[in-house]
Each structure stands twice: as C-alpha cells, then as structure tokens.
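thread: overnight batch results

M.L. [08:02]
morning all. the overnight job finished for the chain we discussed friday. pasting input first so we're all looking at the same thing
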Amino acid sequence: MKASDDAGCCVDHRNMCMMNVEMKGWVVMSHVLITYFTRTNTTKDICDRIGAKLQERGHQVKIMPMADVGDGSRSNIDSFDAVIVGAPINGMRWVEEAKSFVEKNAGIMQSKKVVLFYVSYLLDNGYGIWQKSIHGSLKKLVPLVKPLAIGEFKGRVDKPFTGFVRFLFGSRKDEPMDRTDWDHVDDFADYLDRLLQ
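M.L. [08:03]
and the structure it wrote out:
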C-alpha cells in the first residue's frame, strides 16, 4: 500500500491504482436530501447554508421544499442515502406541515440516515415553560424515524415584538430581530459531514 500525499490518495492493490484528488481519501459520500418548510425564509437560508457546506465536502445535495418531495408512495426520498428535515416552531411546536411530512414518510425514512432540525426566534429567549415546549417539540417523532441528530437554531422575525408580546413570551427587550447564529449552523454542518460519511 502506498501512502497518500498532498495530491490525493493512491492505493496499490492487485495492480489497481485508485485516485481521489478532491477528497484526499477513500470516503464514500452521501446523496443527501435537505427538505424544508418555511414562512420567513429563515429555514430555507439555513438549509442552503448546510447544503453548501456538505457539498464543499463532497456530498451530493438536493434542497427542496417538502411540498415538492411528496409523501408516502409518491415520495422520491428513496433515491437518497440521507434526509435532513427542517422547519420552524410555530405556537411553540414544530409546524404541522413538517410533523405530517415525517409521519407520512416514516416508513421510507426508517431505512435512511435522518436528521431533524427546528428554528425558533424564541429559542433560549423566553420563559421556561415556552423553552420546555420548544425543546420537546420533536419528542413524539423521534421513535418514528430515529434521527441521528436533532438541530436547534435561533431564527428571525420580520418585525419587532410589541411590549405585550415580549411580556407574554418573556422575550428580552434588547434582542435583535435576526438572532440566527451562523457559526452554530456551520458547526452543525461540520458535524453532519462526519455523521453522514
């Protein structure tokens, strides 16, 4: 066996030399579907960021709205190795569209590597009762698809909270309208890269 160099990896076995210049190693990358539901485009932006990071590392990535994926027997999930499903929190719960998508596709997704994530402006920004509801929003879906990871991300709002809304949720007055932590998104994408190899 020959050692790898900066140009790639060369394995000498039974007179066969196999080169991998871009990935610098013999790693089989995944064909990944990233699907989402969004209202403010925050979730889509996070999906795009994760997808770009995974593509940089050699994964084949397809990003599309849940409505375009289909469900049950009409779903095209079967052509992918891994499925990442992202959606916002609304009413302190994962939106019904995402919950229904996972439930209808659970049979197909059980044979895939699955990752779920949610986005909430109120994540770690409000009363404990709301935080408990947000953090537990995927609890009933976990046994259905046994996700390898669950991501949680701060999001943004399109207009400032009124004083009454801040009081209702316990949101801090000085919070910016966009709380998205892109470093956290990038760290999660790096983690997924290792997870999906």
